[in-house]
Write a structure and sequence with these properties.
The structure holds two protein chains of two kinds.
Chain A: E1 2-5, H1 6-20, E2 24-28, H2 44-48, E3 53-55, H3 60-71, E4 76-81, H4 91-98, H5 101-104, E5 114-119, H6 134-138, E6 144-146, H7 151-163, E7 168-173, E8 180-183, E9 196-199, E10 204-208, H8 211-227, E11 231-235, E12 238-240, H9 244-254, E13 257-264, H10 269-281, E14 290-294, H11 303-309, H12 313-323
Parallel strand pairs in A: 2-3, 2-4, 4-5, 5-7, 6-7, 10-11, 10-13, 13-14
Antiparallel strand pairs in A: 1-8, 6-12, 9-11
Helix pairs in contact in A: 1-7, 3-4, 8-12, 9-10
Chain B: H1 2-15, H2 28-31, E1 42-43, H3 60-85, H4 100-108, E2 115-117, H5 123-128, H6 133-140, H7 174-187, E3 194-199, H8 207-217, E4 222-228, E5 231-232, E6 235-236, H9 248-253, E7 256-261, H10 265-280, E8 286-291, H11 309-318, H12 321-331, H13 337-360
Parallel strand pairs in B: 2-3, 3-4, 4-8, 7-8
Antiparallel strand pairs in B: 1-7, 5-6
Helix pairs in contact in B: 3-4, 3-12, 3-13, 4-10, 6-13, 7-8
Classes of the chains: A alpha/beta, B alpha/beta.
């Protein structure tokens, strides 16, 4: 397996799918010759040209709307929203149009639309360039939501998204673009709705998404080394569809569950997953399910403030210790 | 600051031009009769309507077909009203009565494989694009035999096989889909065009600027048809619209623009046909403002107290698109009254049959609520 970055994985997924299918095209702000603000479309313009790598005006609602229209009439757009925060400008197009046009018309059309966007704080980008908004979309029937946590998943899930006949939002963790990881050299995709046990363990389950998976793995090492707690880290990889079985199985095995997401805690993914495992594994739980998320504040700018608002691996370590009764909180 | 205020105040003065055709005592703004062709201002490379068909070179078959289609829409809507009042349909119904010439003239300029997007007031667009009366009525009554198997209802009728990408319950919701379909046609190398129906209300949604701008920069084969029926729900359009003429916004977006008398089905047809051939040639998008008027309230049950009886009467007497075309056909020796009446009677029977079909059609089984969410 080759070691490539998360960014390279994204680019490979798009270029392979664009080679494979003429209907696939990329549209977004600065995705053309400049290669994108996160350099996630580098080389695509040179290979596929202006007709298939389209620099859009700064009109997020407009070009997501165009992508919906293109998707229902035979194309397979990949629309890039530079920052997840900008998805809020496109809510009517994604929620009222893309998610509903198939259903409202009694199944008359398919909407093979992939929306790539980013999530996560950590760059001192402040409140309008740091949000993690995946839960908003996971809430909407008709949409699928993928959250790759490593280069292999970034490529495999994105390829699946592009081939999917439904609107899919792929949230890329912007702090992971430079992270390297093993990626198969042969052609592969990763199916939606299949969670991955990123690390096997017996004493506590951590369900984590996106960049929180990396923090959870780090925490698991610490807990193994310092506390002899064997942690299992499970990554759902897609929130919709959700592999409930794998999550529940893990919690039944370990009897303890901690759920970690970078988004604001309230009304989010952690609440949904906590309800799921509590309902399905209540009799197996030895402690109430715990959750970690960002503080319920807009993401602040200054590094000390930003750091105080988002989860860290130490936060996870402490939470597992508390769960296992090692420390009192 | 002071200068800005002056500039804003100056605008309404220009609006006070009123023509003699106004009904006495009626609001000047609303009853200004739609401008005649001579007044239609064209900006940019707006398509020029051919004048041949306006003289004796009228195509009789086409006029009959447009007459019949307009009557079909009128009678369909009258029956929707009836069905609604009798409690035979759930939800809301926004009737198109009075605006028939816009849908019929515009869709007559399209091919079957061209696209349209429609609005909450969309029954006319769907029928004009070729939808069947019975499946339309079945959908409106929430029946499984309806176009959307009962999942959409009055506001969401679509027939993708006829290029009807669907009516939209969001005002301005069609801009993205229609413009995207045009982008898709261009990318796929077809010569299909896409036509977006929207109202004067939707003209104030920001996404019009976004999509219209993209249509301009990428020269997309799209025709924006603004049905200016002069009221956005209950609010007079000019109370909430900064420019006197909505079509003036076209130039700002880099689009060709033209304003049309929307009650004249031939003029609608000719202008849209010119815009369509322009789009098909690859010469880009056109924005057409159709001056029109709805004879009923915003929806069935709206008493429309926000406008005067006199204003309504003026429009019904002077700008009924079906009467205008009928009289013209008689004048040119294409039709006589009895033949026109026969068409009315035939269409009435067809619509009654459609209502019967829909009434007798079964409701969808409850478990279908969970189908069609994902492909």
């Amino acid at each position: 397996m080759a070691e490539i970055t998360y960014r390279e994985a994204v680019i490979q997924a798009m270029s392979e799918e664009m080679r494979r299918d003429d209907a696939v095209f990329l549209i977004g702000e600065d995705v053309g010759p400049s290669g994108g603000i996160f350099k996630c479309s580098e080389g695509l313009f040179d290979e596929f040209g202006a007709a298939r790598v389209i620099d859009a005006p700064i009109s997020e609602a407009g070009y997501i709307g165009l992508s919906v229209g293109a998707a229902v009439t035979g194309m397979r757009p990949i629309a890039e929203l530079m920052f997840g925060d900008f998805s809020l400008l496109t809510m009517d197009q994604i929620v009222n149009q893309a998610a509903k046009i198939r259903y409202m018309t009694g199944g008359q059309c398919r909407v093979p639309l992939t929306i790539r966007t980013t999530m996560g704080a950590g760059r001192s980008s402040a409140a309008q360039h740091s949000q993690s908004l995946h839960a908003l979309f996971a809430h909407i029937p008709g949409l699928k939501v993928a959250l790759p946590s490593c280069p292999r998943d970034a490529k495999g899930l994105l390829k699946t998204a592009i081939r999917d006949d439904n609107p899919v939002l792929v949230f890329e963790g912007k702090m992971m673009y430079n992270d390297k990881g093993p990626v198969p050299e042969e052609e592969y995709t990763i199916p939606f709705g299949v969670a991955e046990v990123k690390r096997a363990g017996d004493d506590c389950t951590i369900i984590a998404v996106s960049s929180m998976v990396g923090l959870a793995l780090e925490a698991a090492q610490t807990l193994s080394r310092e506390d002899e707690i064997s942690v299992e880290v499970v990554d759902p990889r897609t929130l919709v569809p959700l592999d409930e079985e794998t999550l529940v199985e893990s919690v039944r095995k370990t009897g303890y569950a901690l759920i970690v997401d970078e988004a604001s805690l309230r009304y989010g993914v952690t609440g949904e997953l906590a309800a799921l495992v509590t309902e399905a594994a209540f009799d197996y739980l030895d402690a109430p399910v715990k959750r970690i998320g960002a503080a319920n504040v807009p993401i602040p700018f200054s590094p000390t403030l930003e750091g105080a608002a988002i989860p860290h691996s130490e936060t996870i370590v402490d939470a597992v210790r508390a769960l296992r009764g090692k420390i009192r909180r | 600051m002071a200068k800005k205020v002056t500039a804003r105040r100056a605008k309404p003065v220009a609006k006070k031009k009123v023509t003699a055709a106004l009904p006495e005592g009626a609001s000047k703004r609303k009853t200004k009769p739609p401008r005649a062709k001579t007044a239609a201002r064209r900006s940019g490379k707006a398509p020029r309507a051919k004048t041949a068909a306006k003289s004796n070179g009228l195509d009789a078959d086409m006029l009959w077909s447009m007459y019949r289609k307009m009557v079909q829409i009128r009678k369909f809507e009258e029956h929707v009203w009836d069905v609604y009042i009798r409690g035979l349909m759930p939800g809301l119904a926004h009737l198109y009565i009075g605006e028939e010439a816009v849908a019929v003239g515009a869709c007559a300029a399209l091919r079957e494989d061209d696209y349209i997007t429609s609005t909450h007031r969309g029954h006319g667009h769907c029928l004009a694009k070729g939808a069947r009366l019975d499946r339309m009525m079945a959908e409106i009554m929430g029946k499984e035999a309806g176009y959307c198997r009962g999942k959409g209802g009055s506001m969401h009728i679509a027939d993708m096989s006829l290029g009807n990408l669907g009516a939209n319950g969001i005002v301005g919701g069609g801009f993205g889909v229609a413009t995207g379909a045009a982008l898709s046609a261009k990318m796929r190398g077809t010569d299909q065009v896409s036509l977006c129906f929207f109202g004067d209300g939707a003209a104030n949604q920001g996404i019009l600027l976004e999509t219209g701008n993209m249509a301009a920069i990428w020269n997309l084969p799209v025709i924006y048809v603004c049905e200016n029926n002069q009221y956005g729900e209950h609010t007079p359009s000019d109370k909430v619209t900064g420019s006197e003429r909505i079509v003036d916004r076209a130039e700002a977006m880099g689009l060709a623009g033209v304003r049309v008398e929307g009650a004249d089905v031939m003029e609608v047809y000719e202008v849209v046909a010119a815009a369509v051939s322009r789009a098909r040639r690859g010469d880009g998008a056109t924005f057409v403002e159709m001056m029109t008027y709805r004879f009923r309230g915003h929806h069935v049950g709206d008493a429309a107290t926000y406008r005067t009886a006199k204003e309504l009467k003026w429009w019904m007497e002077n700008r009924d698109p079906i009467n205008l075309l009928g009289e013209r056909m008689i004048k040119h020796g294409i039709a006589d009254r009895s033949r026109l009446e026969r068409v009315d009677e035939q269409v009435e029977e067809e619509v009654v049959e459609a209502v019967e079909f829909a009434r007798n059609a079964p409701l969808p089984p409850a478990e279908q609520a969970r189908e069609d969410v994902y492909a």
